[in-house]
């Protein structure tokens, strides 16, 4: 094999490259929160219907990721964190990502409507549209509130799961949506504090670039304070209980403490210890959401034996 043919072979897309377009790590959060929304709903769902529904939600979330990577290929190429993604790395053509995203979007929405109900399918279609169009194509490049408003796209899956089971809405799924929605800004702003100039180099108006890093630290604290009552309040609804409430109190106390530490620091102190507090807060945010939804799932699992819920 010549050097040229070896280079060509290197850039032939594989199954892993197409799977990477679906943002599997983000998809895993979408799947988990949607599953919790479905399981904690007051209406039982046949296991096969539940499996198909969660599969459709996962595929729809992946479709959003593919459309996002297609539109943001120019940004991704200028950021160290994303330069190795399939499109900027040259392993997948933009047109292929667009076709995959559109095909999976249509497939997931139609199949979810046929398997469960078209209210849930409509909610999934809106979620895909919000992430791919409202957030990716409009907000991300136009306002420092991109993460705040765009966070709604990642917050809708538990509502979709609830609607699969019930065909309607209630306070509980909206509080789950609010939990994810309010968690999103401090999660991403903490990341923006220690990835330094990546967003600025790519021309993304992240809060750190438009309002400065001290303001970002204050915003992280403000949103964490607003997040706590939402998370704790969910414990007093029909899907909460003592286990969830205890978990929420502990997790939010720790999260608030981390946000206070970030707000009290400046960049000189952060650089001195390698952004330890910011990186620690970001890592904590990764399991913050998982443990809240895991506690809700545990309450639902314990309810049939009289140990879960109020």
TrEMBL record:
Residues annotated as signal peptide: none
Record localization: Cell membrane
Keyword Magnesium found: no
Pathway: Porphyrin-containing compound metabolism; heme O biosynthesis; heme O from protoheme: step 1/1
Principal subcellular localisation of the protein: membrane
The protein's Enzyme Commission number: 2.5.1.141
GO MF annotations, alphabetized: protoheme IX farnesyltransferase activity
Keyword terms: Cell membrane, Heme biosynthesis, Membrane, Transferase, Transmembrane, Transmembrane helix
Matching InterPro entries: Protohaem_IX_farnesylTrfase (IPR006369), UbiA_prenyltransferase (IPR000537), UbiA_prenylTrfase_CS (IPR030470), UbiA_sf (IPR044878)
Record bears the keyword Transferase: yes
Topological type in the membrane: Multi-pass membrane protein
GO BP terms: heme O biosynthetic process
Function description: Converts heme B (protoheme IX) to heme O by substitution of the vinyl group on carbon 2 of heme B porphyrin ring with a hydroxyethyl farnesyl side group.
Note: Carbon 2 of the heme B porphyrin ring is defined according to the Fischer nomenclature.
Quaternary state and interactors: Interacts with CtaA.
Annotated protein name in UniProt: Protoheme IX farnesyltransferase
Species of the source: Oceanicola granulosus (strain ATCC BAA-861 / DSM 15982 / KCTC 12143 / HTCC2516)
């Amino acid at each position: 094999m010549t050097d040229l043919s070896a280079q060509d072979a290197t850039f032939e897309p594989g199954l892993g490259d197409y799977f990477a377009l679906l943002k599997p790590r983000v998809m895993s959060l979408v799947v988990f929160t949607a599953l919790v929304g479905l399981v904690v709903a007051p209406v039982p769902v046949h296991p096969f219907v539940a499996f198909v529904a969660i599969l459709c939600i996962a595929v729809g979330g992946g479709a959003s990721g593919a459309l996002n990577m297609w539109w943001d290929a120019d940004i991704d190429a200028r950021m160290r964190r994303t330069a190795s993604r399939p499109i900027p790395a040259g392993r997948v053509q933009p047109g292929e990502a667009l076709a995959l995203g559109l095909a999976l979007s249509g497939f997931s929405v139609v199949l979810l409507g046929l398997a469960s109900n078209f209210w849930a399918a409509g909610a999934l279609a809106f979620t895909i549209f919000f992430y791919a169009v409202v957030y990716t194509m409009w907000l991300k490049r136009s306002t420092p509130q991109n993460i705040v408003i765009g966070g709604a796209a990642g917050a809708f899956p538990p509502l979709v799961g609830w609607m699969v089971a019930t065909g309607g809405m209630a306070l509980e799924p909206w509080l789950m949506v609010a939990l994810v929605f309010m968690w999103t800004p401090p999660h991403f702003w903490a990341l923006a504090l220690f990835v330094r100039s990546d967003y600025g180099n790519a021309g993304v108006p992240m809060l750190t670039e438009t309002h400065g890093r001290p303001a970002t630290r204050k915003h992280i604290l403000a949103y964490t304070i607003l997040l706590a009552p939402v998370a704790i309040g969910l414990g007093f609804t029909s899907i909460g209980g003592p286990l969830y409430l205890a978990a929420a109190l502990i997790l939010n106390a720790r999260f608030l403490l981390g946000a206070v530490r970030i707000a009290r620091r400046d960049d000189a102190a952060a650089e001195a210890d390698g952004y330890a507090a910011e990186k620690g807060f970001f890592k904590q945010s990764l399991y913050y959401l998982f443990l809240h939804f895991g506690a809700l799932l545990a309450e639902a699992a314990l309810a049939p034996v009289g140990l879960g819920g109020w």
